[in-house]
Amino acid sequence: MLALRIALRYLFAPKSHRAVNVISVISIAGVAVATMAIVVVLSVFNGFTSLAGDRLGKVDPDLKVIPVDGKTFAGADSVAYAIASLHDVASAMPVLTERALLVAPEAQMPVRLIGIDPVEYGAPGIEETLIDGVYATDAFVGGDTVAAVQLSVGTALQSRLRPGGESMATIYVPRRTGRINPANPAAAYRTMDAAVSGVFQVDQPEYDTDCIFVPLQRLRNLLEYSHEDASSINVALQPGADEESVQKSVESLLGPEFRVLPREMQQADTFRMISIEKWVTFLMLVFILLIASFNIVSTLSLLVIEKRENMLTLRALGASRGTVRAVFADLGWLITAAGGVVGAVLGVVLSLLQEHFGFIKLDGDPQALSVDSYPVRLEWPDVAAVVLTVFIVGFAISLLSRIFSRKIQ
Predict the structure, then answer these.
(1) Does residue 211 contact residue 152 with C-beta atoms inside 8 Å?
(2) For residues 171 and 110, what is the distance between their CA atoms, to the nearest angstrom?
(3) Closest CA to 285 of 56, 46, 92, 40
(4) Which of 154, 187, 279, 314 would give a disulfide with 319, using CB separation of 3.0 to 4.6 Å?
(5) Residues whose CB is less than 8 angstroms from the CB of residue 196 and which lie 6 or more positions away in sequence, other chains included
(6) What pLDDT digit, counting tens, does each position of 198-235 carry?
């Protein structure tokens, strides 16, 4: 305790040489800036994670049910009805997905078909993603009724298709049943005429590149599936529902034949990439913090020289060598802790200001950007991790400082 009180006095008391005061302030400032940068950068990554989740939340469900074995499963409508009856479940909608070839008058490209029926099952969010046209399931072209589809913005640009008008597209998929005649390769494919009713944009490449929303029953017919086959079931929760509790309820209802994925697991690659970038950046900034902490070592070496006579006096009064060394060890830890606390507070303040007011804007045309300022979300576990890291660095510096105090006999 005596060593800590002396270290506190040395920390705040003016030094006999002005250079020592300046170096001490620089040491604290270096740790503070590094700590502030870590808090802010982690909050920015949290903001991008939240932004990705919000964008994908317009299309991806709260929970997604998929079969453990196989690509599709039978009785999906009945399973969806059973899930919808559970507590805190707003809706459950069967979904069918498949790869196909889109042939337009001016271009052709591989696409991913997503069969949905929000009209029947009340799935929200589809209309919110539309940037052109309207949502529809049927279109009337030349007196005939054809499937109305919604193209992703990337599909629309590459295929040169737009909502409205008389331009038609044809969707090709391989036949699932029957024999293939080598003399007639075209017979190996099934086709469906479609008209574009809308173009959607989610600002995520998983959907914006090559996806097409197709009426569920028409896609079932095209793929030669029964009227209750599906690839997955999208489950929407009531506002304020406990996602983990509902997930366990669905798993208990369906048994081991199905997997229930929360939103983070549905786009595991996207969120894993953001997480990896976040913690790799964290490690790089911690390395910068270590470099900044070496200024503390130089400060302590100067203090050892300046306070040598004081320490000899303490030794003459009966203080042990361990007490003398503890003074400088505590001083090194205090300098690091002071810089860490100041930096953490500044980082929290800056992150909260950016989160609520967005004063740091993104470069570029605001009309072309989905957000006009850096997205930030402060998470207190991250702040705690940063403060703990600073204290560990401070402990390492305190151990190192004992080396410089050995010259005091």
Answers:
(1) yes
(2) 10
(3) 40
(4) 314
(5) 133, 148, 149, 150, 151, 156, 161, 162, 163, 164, 167, 169
(6) 999 887 788 889 999 999 999 999 999 988 899 999 99
CB atoms inside a 10 Å sphere around CB 71: 11
Tell me the pTM.
0.71
User: CA 232 → CA 229, 260, 355, distances in Å?
Assistant: 9, 10, 36
What pLDDT sits at residue 362? 76
For residues 369, 370, 373 and 379, what is the CA-based torsion angle, rounded to 10 degrees?
-150
Backbone φ and ψ for 192, nearest 5 degrees, come out as: -145, 125
CB 388 within 8 A of CB 394: no
Q: What is the pLDDT of residue 367?
A: 56
Task: Please provide the distance, in angstroms rounded to a whole number, between the alpha carbons at the two ends of the chain.
Answer: 21
Torsion of CA 65, 75, 100, 187, to 10 degrees: 160
Taking 50 as the pLDDT cut, the residues of the chain under it are 123, 409
Tokens 């996207």 locate to 270
229 closest CA partner among 355, 94, 346:
94
Amino acid at 300: L
Between CA 241 and CA 87 the distance in angstroms is 9
Strand partners, 243: none
Q: Quick one: 141 exposed, middle or buried, by C-beta within 10 A (0-12, 13-18, 19+)?
A: middle
**Model pLDDT, residue 305:** 66
Structure tokens at 345: 């507070």
Distances (CA, A) of 89 to 70, 79, 84, 351: 26, 13, 6, 35
The one-letter code for the residue type at 174 is P
